Amino acid sequence: MLENIVKLKKVKDLLKEEFLVKSYQRGYKWTKTQIEDLLDDIEEFDNKKDSFYCLQPIIVKEEDGNWELIDGQQRLTTIYIILSVLNRKNFSIDYQTREASSAFLKDYIGKNSIPLSTWEEFIAEKHQLNHIDNYHFFNAYQIVQKWLEDKRVNIENFWLKLTEYTEVIWYQINDGSDSREIFTRINSGKIPLTNAELIKALFLISYVDTDGVSHLQQRELAQEWDRIEYALQNDEFWYFLNKTENKHPTRIEFIFDLISGKKNNDNAFFSFNYFRAKIKDGSVQAQWGSVKKMFLTLQEWHDDHELYHYIGFLITFGEKIDQLLELSRDKTKKAFKEELRARCRIGKTIDQFSYREGKEVRKLLLLFNIVTLMDSKSHVRFPFDKFKKDNWDIEHIHANKSEAPNSIEHWKVWFKETSRQLKLLENNDKHHKTAAELLKKCSSINFDKYKEESNAVLELYYEIVEFYSDNNGDADDISNLTLLDAGTNRSFKNAIFPVKREVIIDRDGKGKFIPICTKNVFLKYYSPNATHLHFWGSEDRNSYREKIRTTLESLGFLKQIKKPSLIS
């Protein structure tokens, strides 16, 4: 399949072409303001100082030797009318199902035979021409004619500016896409022509050819462009800078939007227009230099171990790269890091976190994971790409009694998995008797009579949950919470600790990303007595909670608990 073509074409190169506007497109409706703005821009353009004046893109598709005009009809029709008023050579435009429009454009506009009269006077003798398209063509013609007279324009100089120094961005569709679908996507804001493609064409064409120097510069720019795009295609780099997947077809457009200051509600070609104006007023080398400088800054942040983790954490919780770029302005790297550290701090004590403050707990636990890796001598980095590609829940390490199964099928699975864990305690001297009693109760459940036995089933559930956690207080406390991906969490939300532990170990062994501290919890890395692998008791919870506190307090990320003064 042929690739789509993006290039710049002078207006004079369009004069031999034939364009077709198909039935799915609306008619010509440019206003006086739009027409005069275009004329003013061309006239005010200094062709002695600037290399060229660039119009917005037109999108075409070849059909039977002609060009189907998918987008840009309004601009191209206006240029046709201007050329007609100038009485110069022109291209042709036909309307597939509006023969009257095609005829009027060709026989009246194209032949420069519009009288100085009102539309009403004109059609008084030509009723057959009374058509809405013709009305707008007629008005546009007179607007152009009056503008040329009022401005006392030098026709030859204006003709030169229009044909030799005015260029359109020519986007040629070769990929077999359906024209109507492309048109629909354009007009719904999902534009197939990207700012990146337009900006690349702008940069490449803007070099002035001087003894072949421009060709070398173009090759260098194209190679540097590819290196930047390739680096941004690395998900580790991309998700360090962004919360979500790329919304653009190419990721380099992210750099352009950063430089231009584009906001979500700005028009689709905001960044292209920004660079077009900058290149017009300055140097293409300087503008490409700003792109490279921005990329190298972001790459430097990514490669620095501390900056990578601070920035990645802040981006995850809503900071924007443009805000951090502004924060870094005129600061040393050391001062910038201190500012970032300050923004990462959580202004609460460890006692103030519970399951009910979901976002704050998620923030605390992610920071705990990140700081754990930052302190590691192995220089392993937190994988923001893997973290952001999944949805992460706050999970109870051991089952919460208030979240009992809510269907018969769920109860059956829960008791099946729990019974299997109880059997594993048959040779445990300390817990054998209790486990055997609980197992016997589990086997006696008759789910055919669930409605009659539902209260007994719930009581047994409470008894088992307490057995595996030694009835150790508030299940919603931070000491019983960790991060789990939503898929695992939904499947095993009510499970007892040993069931969840098996699942975590199994998924970790299969290469599934498990945050380091979540893995440490279920491996009982923080527990003083790691031999009790089947239980998550008071000692485990207290040790885990204390590890979170000391890790984050010692580095100033968590507010310290004030201890009461001792008065003698």
- Strand proportion, as a percent range, falls in 5-15%
Distance between the termini: 87 Å
Uncertain stretches = 564-568
Cα radius of gyration in angstroms:
35 Å
Largest sheet: 6 strands, mixed
**Widest sheet: strand order?**
1-6-3-4-2-5
Percent range of helical residues? 40-55%
Number of domains: 4
Counting DSSP E segments of at least 2 residues, the number of strands comes to 8
How confident is the prediction overall: mean pLDDT? Answer: 86
Question: What attributes does this structure have?
Answer:
two-stranded antiparallel ribbon; six-stranded mixed β-sheet; elongated; 8 strands; alpha/beta; about 575 residues
Describe the structure.
The protein has a 6-stranded mixed sheet with strand order 1-6-3-4-2-5, with helices on both faces. Strands 7-8 form a two-stranded antiparallel ribbon. It folds into 4 domains: 5-193, no CATH class; 213-303, no CATH class; 350-399 and 473-554, no CATH class; 401-467, no CATH class. The N and C termini lie far apart (87 Å). With 568 residues, it is of the alpha/beta class. The protein is 54% helix and 8% strand. The chain has 25 helices and 8 strands.
Summarize this entry quickly.
This protein is α/β, with parallel strands linked by helices and 568 residues long. It has helices at residues 32-44, 73-85, 99-109, 119-124, 132-151, 155-164, 179-187, 195-206, 213-232, 235-241, 253-260, 270-281, 284-303, 305-316, 321-328, 333-344, 358-374, 384-389, 408-423, 432-443, 450-467, 486-492, 497-509, 516-522, 538-554; strands spanning 5-10, 18-21, 53-63, 66-71, 92-95, 166-172, 392-396, 481-485. Helix 1 (32-44) packs parallel to helix 5 and helix 3 packs parallel to helix 5.
